[in-house]
Amino acid sequence: MAWTVAPEPHDSPVAAALWRAYYTEVSDRWYLLHEGRRTDPGELEREIAAQSGGDLAPPRGLLLVARYAGEPAGSAGVRLLDDAAAELTRVFLHEGMRGRGGAALLVRAAEDAARARGATRMILDTRGDLVEARALYARLGYAETEPHNAGPYAEHWFAKELG
Questions:
Q1: In whole angstroms, what is the distance from residue 20 CA to residue 2 CA?
Q2: What is this enzyme's EC (predicted)?
Q3: Rg of the Cα atoms in the chain
Q4: Cα 120 to chain center, whole Å?
Q5: CA–CA separation, 143 vs 121, rounded Å?
Q6: Could you give the strand order of the β-sheet that contains 85-93, starting from the edge strand earlier in sequence?
Q7: Per-10-residue mean pLDDT for the chain, 163 residues long?
Q8: Residue 122's pLDDT is what?
Q9: 140 close to 104: Cβ distance less than 8 angstroms
Q10: From residue 46, how far is each of 22, 31, 38 by CA, in Å?
């Protein structure tokens, strides 16, 4: 089976389904770790609704969707922060699709998209409990850096020169 990665409108049904899957997983992981419970359904709906994804709309943003055998399997977003820096965000693969190389393809496609928009550096943040994400970024050449934002869930910050 082959992977494909292509731009997707940030407000498409595919984007909405992937955002819901991503947010549900990372939120549940946080609550299970810190409070021993899953995310309250009402809170989940409020948080999903509050994050429209509009920051991933062209020309300053881009949402990429990975498909495996034609089926949506994951996503990654790119936001231009200034003339040189882009932020990698919402990197996600459905659990059953992990370990097949799709995450690296998504990140590389996001890097290519950032370069095409003039960025020379990619930055990102992630949480400490997302150990798979941290391992992926390190494997792809991202170096841990000092904090570049004060996000409430940001615990690790990474950067990579895009060259």
A1: 24
A2: 2.3.-.-
A3: 15
A4: 19
A5: 12
A6: 3-7, 61-68, 71-80, 85-93, 121-126, 156-161, 143-145
A7: 92 92 86 85 81 86 96 96 94 92 95 96 91 93 91 88 92
A8: 98
A9: yes
A10: 15, 16, 15
- Written as one letter, the residue type at 151 is G
Tokens encoding 123: 């930055």
Question: Do 36 and 50 touch, CB atoms closer than 8 A?
Answer: no
Place of tokens 């996000």: 151
**Backbone phi, then psi, for 127, in 5-degree steps?**
-95, 160
Looking up tokens 């370069």 gives: 115
For residue 1, the model assigns a pLDDT of: 63
Provide the sign of the torsion angle of the four alpha carbons 97, 26, 17, 112, taken in this order.
negative
Q: Which domains does the chain have, with CATH numbers?
A: 3-161 (3.40.630.30)
Lookup result for tokens 């089926």 = 71
Beta strand pairing call for 85-93 and 121-126: parallel
CB 39 within 8 A of CB 27: yes
Return left, alpha or beta for 20; rule: phi > 0 is left, psi -120 to 50 is alpha, else beta: alpha
pTM above 0.85, yes or no: yes
